[in-house]
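Structure tokens please, single chain.
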Amino acid sequence: MATVSARSIRIRHIDEAFTLESLRALYVQQGGVGTEQSVLSYFSRWLPYTSRPALSCLGSSLSVQNGYKVATASFNDENAKRSAAKYAYPAGWIVDDKFDGITILHSPTTEHGIEVDICAIHGPQGNAFDTWEAGNETRTSMWLRDYLPYTPPFNRARIMTFGYSSQVKDRENVSEIRDWAKNLLSQVGSVRKQETERKRPIIFVCHSLGGIVARDAIVRLNAHPEEYPCIRIQDCGLLFLGTPHSGTTLAEWNAFLSSIAAVAGVRTEVIEKLRSFNSAGVDSKEAFNSIKIHPPPYYCFSETKRLNIGGKLTLVVIQDSAGLNGAVAEPIPDSDHRQMCRYEHIFAPGYGLVVEGLEKIQGKLLLKPKSARSEEEFEELPGHPLVTAARFPLPSGKAYYEGKGLFGRGGDRLVGRAAEYDELRRVTSEMLDETTEITAISVSGIGGIGKTELLLTLAHRYRNKSNIFLLRPSVERSFTEALLSIANNIGSELLATRHRNQDLHRLWSDLDVSQKIEAFHGWFSAEESGKNFLLIDDIDAVPQSEIKAALPQGPRNILITTRNPILVKALEDEYHLQVHWIRLANLADNDMMEYTSRRFENFLGDGNHPSTYIADHIETVSRLAVGHPLVASRIVSYIATNLTEWHGPKAAEHFVQEVQKAHTLRKLPVKVLKYKPMFQYSIAETFESSRKRLPGPDEPSWTLMQLIAFMVLDDSAYMHFLSLERPWIFEYKGKLHFHDIWFADLDDKQAWLSSLRKVSLGTARSQTEHLHFHPILIQYIQEQTEEKVKIRIIGDIMLLAMESIQRSDQSASTDIMLSAHAKHCTNICKAYGILPAALGLPQSLARKCKLIFDRD
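Here you go.
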């Protein structure tokens, strides 16, 4: 017997002609239960929990299942649920709150539009609906029903739950894990009878013990495929949430069962029955790991918060136990064993991580060939090497595609980069055909300019033609860790050429980290491994010593993105690379408008073109980004998430008015610069990441950058100001706050500017050209500089500019340049409310400063 849902019901055998609106109207006609309120703005479909009054019916769904329709409805409490369950529904309808078997929550309107099935499997003592639900009396969020269907690419997924008799308090329940696994396969098969359904990929999303049920089902499917013709093992993938895979010792397994017993109220005799599964569980895991012909892709997650169990804070499933076959489980921040599968909104940390995991699994399933070698053909080969081993030809149309961030890319997201992409594609083709001596390509530019997107678009193009490996290191994840993750994904296959007729899984597990990386390097460089590409994104994010560890011997077919082309130049010399250089500049105005328009389309969805809402404002919004794609993306995201709820279709208009009211020098509100979408960087963080790559605190390049941010930048006026000879400057040694910069010789200043160039805080087309600085970077530096430091910087610049003019020891054009700097500083003072008297200038200069201030 399945557990009942606390406040949701399921209605089955509904006529196909019935609609969701009809169901809601039915509740109104019955009286007493309010309908689900229409969302307050067109964007709130992504925020379905916001701004709702306390209505009884908080969420619902209606989908086709086996020739009928099945509905779900959620209410604000158990009493409302019971009342709704007793309504006078049409004859033949079946109402329950158990959710046993299969319940389809979402199905696209056309069969042709469905790309994947997703089936959620709950853990012990769970309900197939409530396990995945979060919320309170005024709102509900069952993410499989309320969020995932509106999150691309899963708007093209059929989403269902599987409920089984895990109510282990029920003394009539004598089911075991293997019974549940068989039932899972049979129930899923019952909704996959059509030919198109049978060939469709399916991903099992599993919580806790539900993962062992699914794992056992895969083992059974592999052993007895003839019993389950509606499911093919090559179409299966799994996502595990807190599943105890590695609890194979008696102590570990018993500890897990004790925790589950306390959390879920499991009765003693069932615990004893589950204890007996331990030895069989070891066999089940080994049987799963030994699937060679069609090993299903999977992704594991672990909890990070302890549950209070009997007065003791306990991790129900530790991270090591949640991993499988050497794959480390990814932790879900701030989530315990119960919470890790429940998400109150789309910005919950766990939701984004799970969606990314689903995208990765779906990407692998959609890449799998529809025809593969039979088991008989497989067994003819000596030693039974893996079907994708280096010496075993890859099936037609399949290639390795490994690395976090590769999956879910559509390859059609580039805007305004046609010339750069064509150049990248041309050189890449020549590298593959070996018609060029080029061995590496460097794509450089400031942070957020589109380097990664260009690289991933190319990777998508070659995903079935070449082996693609992506390394994306960061401060939190070293090159070694990123490379080890890829090596582990291929695992024992790297050893197949040297160790035949041996247990490759055991050999691989016995290797240490350096040996595994060495195995990958050796395989990557070998001729028989085929055409390989190693993509290294943001190579200057980690120390150069780690970069050396990432590069294979005799590196070839290396594609690099960097903010520091000088670093790549050093690698070119050390590794004898032949590098082709591509530099990304700001997008042109028309391209920025198209990019901004597309970003709004992505947020609005459902074919709502942004012209419906922001036709008069796209140009203004795109112009604010000054050719910077990341800035445009964050502005659109800020408007959509922060303003739409309150201003609806006038959100963009409200934003433009807010910007226009501000001072002309403060183009973007500070809150936009610091706005951070979930799992993404803010504009401020992107610039800060470049700043952190500068040399240590004793090297004054960042101080110089701050000074430049308060100068006139047109026509390299800042360089003229910095290089101007002032033999009298030592008279002001005690009055200038940044004398180390002002008194330095030109060679030192050039060296500090070179440091800014290395991290792309400033960019130039050649070594001889003066650096250019993006206007949004300049605004950010001005905004984040403390007021007292602002005053000191402006005071120094005003003193040097006006004293130079007063000394009259330079040309008229220089005086004009100096006057421009002084005027610019007074405008900055006005923008930030700084009075001339605060600058601490000598009395004679203070009077002139006030005259400029008052005149402008």
